[in-house]
Amino acid sequence: MNNETYLNIAIETAKKAGKEVLGYYKKGDFTAELKSDESPVTSADIAANNTIIDCLKTLTPDIPIISEETSAEDLSKRANWSKYWLLDPIDGTGEFILGSGDFAVNIALVENNWPTIGVIHAPDHKLTYFGQSGAGSFKENAQGAKQIFVSPYQAGKPIKVAISRRQELGLMGQYLRDDYAYEYVALGSCSLKNCLIAEGGADCYLRIGPTGEWDTGASQCILEEAGGTILSSNFDPLSYNLRDTLMNPDFISLGDQQFPWRDIVIPHVASRKL
């Protein structure tokens, strides 16, 4: 199979899982509980996870899978994988529970430790974002698909910062230099905020707090193909399948890379040792 075929498989699988998730969401017929890390999980997450894994194992039986909702192999077993699927069945489970609609199915194909295909399907918004290395990124809605790009830097204009709906602005303020003007854009789901940057609706997003590689894999590909990038909060590249842990450090999603980010964002040493 070539990567275009893998992309089509990821898109159709994400939409199939999204339809199932939307059924739970519209009916309000789901259970919710806290996992050991105190993050929420619902019966819809588990159903979507099972649907995605069943589809991918049927269509690409030789490609291993890492999912937020499934125990991962030890690094000693997965370190030699040349490619694998990386899944978040519902990114934004908290938003799903609260009913904001800002949740999405994330599927990435990681090759040689870097995401080369990314698909993010937001069923309640009827939107699908997808990207493929060397082929660009696109946003699909009922009118069709169009290529997307980050917003070009314009000196003197307020910097649009994507934030979570319930994020404390004071927390962000300590990482942004106060000699610039900012405009905050609230949106749920880590991956949807990265897609907002990819389509030019925001300039940056700072994530201070726990995320997994499944939260960034698909949107990393989409954002980079649109002209942006994601870096750790100390300006180092993120990594995929290179460490015992699959948890990310704190990170910064950036739009136009010509923008003087180092003058605006204050790097810090994350307190979480990963």
From TrEMBL:
InterPro entries (UniProt xref): CysQ, CysQ/Inositol_MonoPase, Inositol_monophosphatase-like
Membrane topology: Peripheral membrane protein
Catalytic activities: adenosine 3',5'-bisphosphate + H2O = AMP + phosphate
Record flagged with keyword Magnesium: yes
Binding site for Mg(2+) 2: 88, 91, 215
Residues the record lists as binding substrate: 68, 90-93, 215
Cellular localisation: Cell inner membrane
Residue positions binding Mg(2+) 1: 68, 88, 90
Cofactor(s) the protein needs: Mg(2+)
Keyword line: Cell inner membrane, Cell membrane, Hydrolase, Magnesium, Membrane, Metal-binding
Domain of life, per lineage: Bacteria
UniProt-listed Enzyme Commission number(s): 3.1.3.7
Bilayer-spanning residue ranges: none
HAMAP family assigned: CysQ (MF_02095)
Family: Belongs to the inositol monophosphatase superfamily. CysQ family.
Protein function: Converts adenosine-3',5'-bisphosphate (PAP) to AMP.
Protein name: 3'(2'),5'-bisphosphate nucleotidase CysQ
Lineage: Bacteria, Pseudomonadati, Pseudomonadota, Gammaproteobacteria, Alteromonadales
